[in-house]
Design brief:
The chain has 536 residues and is α+β, with helices and mostly antiparallel strands. The protein contains 15 helices and 21 strands. It is 35% helix and 21% strand.
């Protein structure tokens, strides 16, 4: 959730407009009437929800402070009006562990789960709707006694010495996300839904007419079903329990844009709006585009980190971490073609040099030319397939190898990764074997989730271009060249023996995971991108 909030905050820069940073700024701004109306709406919502009682502060108790947070929200389409939102937020950083809160972890749906659902929706032509919970965190029940000062601008005359004893969770409290999730989870289970064993924010219910799916990311929901009546029924149940906003057909979630062509059975997932905002923020809208995310001449290593005072001074002014983080979110959501490039540049976040920054600028140039690129889901063969590759000793500093894998459903990527291996491989066979083992772990999770959602129990095929590594997955013998390999990488042998995964040979020329471990020529890169559903 923090990654999404950071990425969207970086991109949300509305030129020439400054949002109020406090209550006093809001009341003297040119849009003060709109901000005041937004604050009154928030207070009405808090009152309806019975969020607190005004009481005298008990002895030995210390109240926490609160503040107003203001945000303009642009509509999904250009014709939508800008919405003004005011939110009352508790200053949770002053809460004391063990007294004001205990557990704080709250799950959110995985991006891979979202893409798997979208593939199912496109494959079977399901309805896809979106809902938003208004003031979601206010629905959580508090288990601790927490006291808070009255909100600025809304202190009740004659009751200035009273404080708010919170009955419901409030935005900003450490435990708010967890309490909201517990409340929502309890409600969904009471309505006959089953929580996925593989993703705690995926819910499924089989009815007489069809299956209905719900995915939850904090307060955003995607609902899919063949039967539109089932969706409307679920919307009604949710609206009776929580204050909901019906957003209709799903168009945008977590900065990702969803569009459909139902006549051809195509569904597109893109981030063109987010990409353009990021390009504008880093002054990369007028650069010359390039054809690949990272050129072969970039041989990045820690030796290129700043050495002179001049370089240190120069790099101190470069927003390297912010730029890489913004690009990383695009890669995580819808751009597997960026995986290798970002795996490389993210290794130098602590102390980047000029050459590292040039590589990041190169990625921006590639992104500028492919801002409209998207993942294309369709009605092709309903099959979960994996591709894996490794680049032996690709890391110039510690000589570790790179692992790259991508899994597709119907020819469109749903899960991918490009990362350095944790140990140094002593041969290409060992590097490829370790890469296959990592891909196998992801395949096990994907197969479990896919089975829950679709009932498909078929074996997952993972394609590798290393014949020797494939033999090693089946060969139970230990000999001089393989006896040192860590036991944990032999996990794949058990999975293959049980029939859950099958590893097959594929030509290097046809392996799309090749682009995730090394810079490849333009023609090969375009082929790899098309094989995993990336279209421009």
């Amino acid at each position: 959730a923090n990654v999404v909030a950071y990425a969207c905050a970086v991109a949300e820069e509305i030129e020439g407009i400054v949002e109020p940073s406090s209550y006093s700024d809001a009341v003297i701004s040119s849009d003060s009437d709109k901000w005041m109306a937004a604050m009154h709406d928030e207070m009405k919502s808090l009152e309806r929800n019975d969020t607190w009682d005004l009481i005298k502060l008990p002895k030995e108790k210390k109240p926490i402070h609160c503040k107003w947070v203001f945000k303009r929200k642009e509509g999904v389409s250009p014709n939508d009006k800008t919405r003004y939102k005011a939110r009352l937020v508790a200053k949770g950083y002053s809460q004391i562990p063990g007294i004001d809160y205990n557990e704080v972890f709250s799950p959110v749906v995985k991006h891979s789960s979202i893409r798997i659902l979208l593939s199912i929706v496109a494959m079977h032509d399901y309805e896809l709707q979106q809902l938003d919970v208004k003031t979601a965190f206010l629905h959580g029940e508090l288990e601790e006694d927490i006291y808070m000062h009255q909100p600025e601008g809304f202190i009740i005359p004659g009751k200035e010495n009273l404080v708010c004893k919170l009955k419901k969770s409030l935005y900003g409290l450490k435990q708010s996300p967890r309490q909201w999730y517990k409340r929502f989870d309890t409600f969904m289970l009471s309505q006959g839904f089953k929580r996925s064993n593989y993703d705690s924010c995926v819910y499924l219910k089989i009815t007489t007419h069809s299956a209905i799916y719900l995915l939850l990311y904090v307060d955003d929901m995607l609902i899919a079903s063949k039967d539109k009546g089932e969706i409307e029924n679920l919307k009604g149940q949710l609206s009776r329990e929580f204050e909901m906003k019906d957003l209709g057909d799903a168009k945008k979630i977590l900065g990702m844009e969803i569009s459909r062509d139902r006549t051809s059975g195509k569904l597109y997932l893109s981030q063109s709006g987010y990409v353009r905002k990021v390009l504008r923020r880093f002054n990369m809208l007028d650069v010359k585009p390039v054809s690949t995310p990272l050129a072969a001449h970039f041989k990045l290593s820690s030796a290129m980190c700043p050495q002179s005072n001049e370089d240190i001074e120069y790099m101190s002014r470069v927003p390297y971490s912010s730029a890489v983080g913004s690009l990383m979110y695009a890669m995580v959501c819808s751009r597997p073609d960026l995986s290798h490039a970002l795996s490389v540049v993210s290794r130098f976040m602590a102390n980047p040099g000029r050459e590292h920054w040039k590589a990041v600028q190169w990625i921006f140039r590639y992104l500028h030319g492919t801002a409209n690129a998207c993942l294309q889901f369709g009605k092709s063969k309903d099959e979960l397939v994996g591709y894996v590759d490794s680049d032996f000793a690709g890391d110039l500093d510690k000589r570790r190898s790179l692992t790259g894998y991508v899994f597709t459903i119907g020819g469109c990527a749903v899960s991918w990764k490009a990362t350095l291996q944790t140990t140094v491989a002593l041969s290409t066979t060992e590097a490829e074997y370790m890469a296959i083992s990592e891909a196998c772990k992801e395949a096990t999770w994907l197969r479990g989730l896919y089975f829950e959602l679709c009932g498909d129990t078929s074996c997952i095929t993972i394609f590798s271009d290393s014949q020797s590594a494939i033999c090693l997955t089946k060969d139970q013998m230990f000999h001089e060249r393989t006896k040192h390999i860590d036991v944990r990488y032999h996990y794949i042998r058990d999975v293959i023996a049980k029939g859950g995964v099958k590893v097959c040979k594929i030509s290097t020329h046809d392996n799309p995971a090749d682009m995730m471990t090394k810079p490849v020529p333009i023609t090969k890169f375009e082929l790899c991108s098309s094989l995993v559903g990336v279209t421009v």
